[in-house]
Write a structure and sequence with these properties.
The structure holds two protein chains of two kinds.
Chain A (H helix, E strand, L loop, with lengths): L15 H39 L3 H4 L14 H7 L4 H32 L5 H11 L8 H10 L6 H24 L4 H9 L4 H12 L1 H17 L2 H6 L8 H4 L4 E2 L2 E2 L1 H22 L1 H4 L10
Antiparallel strand pairs in A: 1-2
Helix pairs in contact in A: 1-13, 3-13, 4-7, 4-10, 5-7, 7-10, 8-9
Chain B lengths: L1 H4 L22 H36 L6 H4 L11 H8 L1 H34 L2 H16 L2 H11 L6 H8 L17 H27 L4 H9 L4 H29 L3 H6 L11 H11 L3 H31 L2
Classes of the chains: A mainly alpha, B mainly alpha.
Amino acid sequence: MSVLTPSRTGGTPVRPGAVKARRRRRTVRSSYNLVAGLFIVLIGFPVYWMVATALKPGNKALSYVPQWFPWPMTWDNFDAAIHKDFFLSSLRNSALVVVGVVVASLLLASLAALAVSRFHFRGRAVFIVMIVAIQMVPLAGLVIPLFKVLATAHLTNRIPGLILAYLTFVLPFTVWTLRGFIINIPVELEEAALVDGCTRTSAFFRITLPLIAPGLVATGIFAFIQAWNDFLLAVTIMQDNKDYTATVWLSFFTNRQGTSYPQLMAGSTIIAAPVVVFFMAIQHRVATGLTAGAVKG
Amino acid sequence: MAVETQAPRPAGRRPSAPSSGAAGGTSSRRRLRRASVPYLLILPTVVVVAAVLGYPLWKLFDISFRHYGFAQIVGGKAAPHNGLANYRAIFDDNFFWTVLVRTVVWTTAVVVATVLIGLALALLMERISRWARLLLTFVLIAAWSMPRVVATEMWKWMTDYQFGVLNYSLDKIGLHQFRSYNWFVPSRPLPGLILVGIVVVWGALPFVVITLYASLTQVPKELVEAATCDGAGPTTVFRMVTIPILRPVLVIVTSLSIIWDFGVFDQIYIMGDNVPDKAFWLMGVYAYSDAFRQGYFGLGAAISIVMVAVLLVVTVFYVRQMIRLGETE
């Protein structure tokens, strides 16, 4: 029962000791909540400041004494951002890219992660070392030759090309992280499924995959945000205005006269909003680990 | 899985694919098919990564042994081999060693802070009320979904010496030295490096907390209860039950943080107005500046290779542990 609603114990007589224990638990939880509140403010402030700036009229955004609340509030900056050229097309491009990257990376990575966590094969160590080492190479050194490769395959200025580029950087990460989740799933569960007549494939899809759901969500968020927020690869590979992704579109707010901060913040808020909404909708998948109760002994 | 765990295995690495074990009657064709399963599983990943990154990686390695400048990249001039000259130039440069040591110290501090705070927050999330957990998740996701360039601009602006809301607040709570405070003064680089560290930790926390929290949900409640019944206190439960289950993901998060923080670029570059003073250079900026601003691509490539080598040495402990982790199962 929830610690927050201690009064709803119904008509059952309550021992005084239990009341005391519950009260202590409640104080402990309140102090935890207080600490959490502190971190919420510290972590959230830059986000709040972005939204608040977007809601301020241009002349109020810059002031020596900070204006803590965006009052009077204005939607002008959002209006300007929405009517900026290529707003919709850039959002559409980003959405397509993200869907491609998330689906492909989770699919390919869960297979590869299964291989490295459940099988012993020659070259396994080499594969792991490669996966780890690739992530260590500074991106700046790879961009130009990467562009050449994609150009040879006629994939520049095309969404599949960008998906492919992100995939190569996201895959090592997803393989590596999913592996950490798979090795915590007892092999016995899969074996039990095999005994019950599952094929190996269906054992994977019916047993292992649901059990690593929290891991899939966590790595999926990573792949999503990586593809959604990248600037360097997007600006290199997509060179036509109409092919720009959302983060590259943000650079339209900077011109020779400087950056229009309130408008930039409005644009950033619009770009961040779908990510937040999407992940708040699926975040309970992280919280409700399906393993609870599945593993006995 | 059946093929994996049947016969007790010798301690050393096994020479090849799964033994037939108890399945004595299987034909060799079937055995071959089983042996090929892991290769089929990793094949798509290998193909994608090799097709796209194979050539760039080779190119980077190759030009680190060449004299490769603007004339070669734009003019298409031949790039002569110059052996180890690029590497020798780096190792002979005192500034390289300064930047390397600075980067190692900075990375250590930032990774320790990231992992400790991240772990604390993930554990905290299990213990707080539902509304607080939702709010914290919301804030983490929101911070994570701010495009990094924008987020860094935001931090730069919050710490602007004239308009910075952070400076203003620090002044108001009694730290008056932060009034009109310039964080990036080359003669005393520590505040600037600390600030960049804070920005990096802030940016990494969402990933670390959410991943560790997801991993915490894999800790079976029954195990915790059983341990508590056996008289284990919260510390013992944490040490003997939680940490072992968290370990694979903790290892991953830590080593990823090391890799990312060691190569940090955007935050320093943007907060230093796109021309960060040399006093604030870390390895990522160093490699980039040599390669692109000055046109020594060969040198930049060599620095990148050295960075990978350093990281491999640093993370070799983790990588070894990872390879072993799978094998002892």
